[in-house]
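The protein record quoted in full:

***
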Amino acid sequence: MDLYNISDNLSVPKDILCGATLFKITGQYEAYIENFKKIIRFNQDEIVIRGNKCVIMIKGTNIKIAYFSNGGMKIKGRFKSIEFSQ
């Protein structure tokens, strides 16, 4: 049994038990990310972030980091696509 199944069975959030990256998006203009490792690439047209278990790529226009701390970051802009990969 893996940690994701254990998390479901115990009703413990996956970001706490598994160290999963928490990704919250509001429409196509704002995203908040927690539990990430680093920013791989960033410019006004895209941001690529290495999460704990995946890579997140956000493409769009006027992308900027509105807030950044050890705990998380808020990204703003007009998002055209969001991709997750290993």
